Amino acid sequence: MAEVLVLVDHVDGEIKKNTYEMLNAARRIGEPSAVVVGTPGTTSKLADGLAAHGAEKIYVAESDDVVNYLSTPQVDVLAALVERVSPPAVLIPAGADGREVAGRLAVRTNSGWLNDLVDIDGERAGTHSIFGGAFTVQSHVTTDTAIVSWRSGSLEVEEQSGAGTQETVEVPATDASKSAKVSNRAPIVGGDRPELTEASVVVAGGRGVGSADNFNVVEVLADSLHAAVGASRAAVDSGYYPNQFQVGQTGKTVSPQLYVALGISGAIQHRAGMQTSKTIVAVNKDPEAPIFEIADFGIVGDLFSVAPQLTEEVGKRG
Ligand code: FAD
């Protein structure tokens, strides 16, 4: 069976859920091989989790360069492995970093790129969800390898054990890879809340929230539900909430068990980032707001009246 490469998404020694989804997806078309690119010592913490989710092989690429040079070390490692094992597909998370890796890798290996897949239909074929989920599109590439960026939240995570055989590979350190250097890392704001793309509950606010100070209403409800906070682009552009929390086509894609939209109209570009949420609750004072078309529970009302009542009710139920 052909090896299918999966780039492991990990932060601070924790594997992100989308890695497990990609291992499941890879299993459908071949033997999943996890590729961990990290600083020295990273992999020892991750190997058990990867094997428990189906990785037959784990390629370990560790170097201090990894944190210094943006995405190029990941591209270098994957490009060398593509040349060596000729996989039918390489799966990469479809976040901002992942898309950069995927695009560069596609050019470097002369491969076709299937962007933002929600399903795998064959060795070099898959399904995209487009225009805010209004359509699905099947496509395939004709090159030997498909570079796939995988949309988080598209598949269930299943435990299935793999051999997890480890092999060390080099992180090439070419001058070209070092042309852009990381000069500063700003701490992420958001306190102890779960990471937006990993959270099982997201409470998001839109332009209807009205100001940065008012976003407190969103945060208080989020904290009562141990949720992450999200924001529409209009809320971000208005300066109500930081850009890193934007949900949507040009923001993050989330797929939580519960998505609560407060004062969000439900534009197609917003839906693109949240419509696969399992349960959607919308609070909007306009009964015609498009968000109600996809909401499982809709409340027509003023968010400043409804959200505190929800917070109080959640508090009563512990
Ligand atoms: P609005 O559309 O202004 O809606 C505000 C809503 O709040 C209204 O429905 C109103 O009835 C309601 N409201 C007002 N006051 C209250 C109240 N007190 N209580 C209850 N409800 C109230 N948008 C994104 O979100 N994410 C993206 O990634 C994104 N990418 C884009 C990319 C492109 C190329 C383009 C062109 C647009 C993109 N947009 C994106 C913008 C998108 O088209 C919408 O403009 C945006 O989503 C609107 O945000 P909103 O729903 O918060 O604001």
UniProtKB/TrEMBL annotation:
FAD binds at residues 207, 232-233, 246-250, 263-270, 284. Binds 1 FAD per dimer. Its cofactor is FAD. It holds the Pfam family ETF. PROSITE patterns: ETF_ALPHA (PS00696). InterPro entries: DHS-like_NAD/FAD-binding_dom, ETF_a/b_N, ETF_a/FixB, ETF_alpha_N, ETF_asu_C, ETF_asu_C_CS, Rossmann-like_a/b/a_fold. CDD domains: ETF_alpha. It comes from the Bacteria. GO terms for molecular function: electron transfer activity; flavin adenine dinucleotide binding. One of its GO terms (biological process) is fatty acid beta-oxidation using acyl-CoA dehydrogenase. Belongs to the ETF alpha-subunit/FixB family. The electron transfer flavoprotein serves as a specific electron acceptor for other dehydrogenases. It transfers the electrons to the main respiratory chain via ETF-ubiquinone oxidoreductase (ETF dehydrogenase). This is Electron transfer flavoprotein alpha subunit. It comes from Actinomycetospora corticicola.
